Amino acid sequence: MELLHGVDLEQIGRFEELIAKEKFLRRIYTENEIRYITDHARPAEKAAGMWAAKEAVSKAFGRGLYGMDPREIEIGHLPSGQPCVILLGKAAAQYGAYAIALSISHTDGLVVASCVAYRE
What we know:
Layout: E1 2-11, H1 14-18, H2 22-28, H3 31-38, H4 43-60, E2 73-77, E3 83-87, H5 89-95, E4 99-106, E5 110-119
Antiparallel strand pairs: 1-5, 2-3, 4-5
């Protein structure tokens, strides 16, 4: 079995200005993620959480977002509210054989995401 782990920590305040820029949103997030962020009462918190999750996933695969299109790592949510990862495009072709577990946690000013990916 192959077991991979990635983690990322972000400051929520950094995203207050970033999410006001349409170009930033479209470059980083999918349409589903943008809708989730903009419909939420605390959009910067949600944007930071999704960014941290994308970073954690890409780090688990040893790439970091510099080697992947962040829109190919979509952060969704199960009916229970639990975050989940949906790989798209090249990321799905390359890493689709992995099962991925994701956790995101927020405090007043920080968000952390942890990703575990594994395959037999």
